[in-house]
Amino acid sequence: MASCKFNLSLSVLVHAIFLFSSPLVLADDKENSVLQGINSYRTSLQLPALTKNDKAGCLADEVADKLQDQPCSSAGASSVQLSNYPELLSKCGIDINHTRDGAVLPVCVPKLVPTLVLTNYTHTQHAKYINDSRYTGVGIGSEDDWMVVVLSTNTPSGSFAGANSLMSKIGCGHCLMCFLMGIMLLFVVY
User: For residue 63, what are the domain limits?
Assistant: First the structure.
């Protein structure tokens, strides 16, 4: 068992070194590198690779934009409080009345050092979501020291495929807002 964990850790480290060897990496490159690293990690666990989901990507960008002014703690994570989830979901065309599955996984790493970002997704409480075969889609956004991964499923309640309805614009999505706020608080508070 220990040998298996060592081999898995070594595999992630080797992938990370090759993926992140360029000293000057732009935000999109960092996001793509993190996605490649996560997919390499999932492949090493015999899980399917995550595919890009445009609406999850939009939500990841929106959440990252909102987090950019939040400070990182020395441990790389900070207590996060975001308001206006319905507004963020609406901007991305996600129907809050029909979306129940998904995960919003923000991490804060000073200067977004790629190997540390990947480690935050594969060796912390976020790993249980990255390791979950139910998740098939992904969106990644980053701003300043924040990287946000949004995972989606291929189910009707997790694909983010539904268009906004009139009811969601009026504000009947308080259940999802509470769900997402709970996820954010749960995953960023160590």
Answer: 23-174
Token code pair at residue 41: 């990690």
7-27 per-position pLDDT tens digit: 444 444 444 444 444 333 455
In this structure, is residue 59 part of a structural domain?
A: yes
Within-domain flag for 158: yes
Residue 38 lies in a domain: yes
Task: Flag residues of the chain having pLDDT under 50.
Answer: 4, 6-25, 74-76, 78, 163-190
CA distance 63 to 21: 27
Q: What is the distance between the terminal CA atoms of the chain, rounded to a whole angstrom?
A: 26
**How many domains would you assign to the chain?**
1
Residue 189 lies in a domain: no
Tell me the C-alpha to C-alpha distance, in Å, between residue 164 and each of 132, 139, 155, 168.
27, 19, 17, 6
Helix (H) or strand (E) holding 82: none
Sheet holding 146-153, edge to edge: 51-52, 135-143, 146-153, 103-108
Provide the CATH number for the domain around residue 61: 3.40.33.10
Beta strands in the chain (DSSP E): 51-52, 103-108, 135-143, 146-153
Backbone φ, ψ for residue 65 (5° rounding): -60, -40
Residue-wise pLDDT for 144-178, tens only, equals 999 999 999 887 766 676 543 322 233 333 334 43
3-class SS of residue 103: strand
